[in-house]
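Q: You know discrete backbone vocabularies at least as well as I do. I have my own habits and do not want them to colour yours. No explanation is needed for now; the record alone will do.
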Amino acid sequence: IQGMPYGNCLLLSDGPINNSTGIPFFYVTPKDNTVTDLLKNPMASLTLPEADGNFCRRNVIDPEDPRCARLTLTGQMVTVPPEEIEFAKQAMFSRHPVVRKWPRSYEWFFMKMNIEHIWLQSWYGEVSPIAVEEYLKAVPTSLLRKPRCTLE
């Protein structure tokens, strides 16, 4: 519905396996309605569940259960500038090698999120804001290795 947000799952990577940055990169096509919308209005939110967290794994709880932490990033989706294209390729192709085989006729290109706000939900409804500067200083874990995501 034109003008209404909706969720979509897109492959993402925050860097090559041994060089996570916390900045989400996406390999997208303008043939996807989500991308068309983002090119008109770049504001988006991305929610990542604690898929590899100790609590959920130890207690065999589904990562989408409200007791498992989830991180929500909001910001503007932008086309990756030429000086970052090589890093974006390494980031995406090292974590998702299958994308190299996607049809070239779809005019794939790279986008990334310029993060403006971050919220951590660590239990039923309890939300804590996190400063972007603190988030980017964090030592990465496998949070973005195999995400389930919603991009609105």
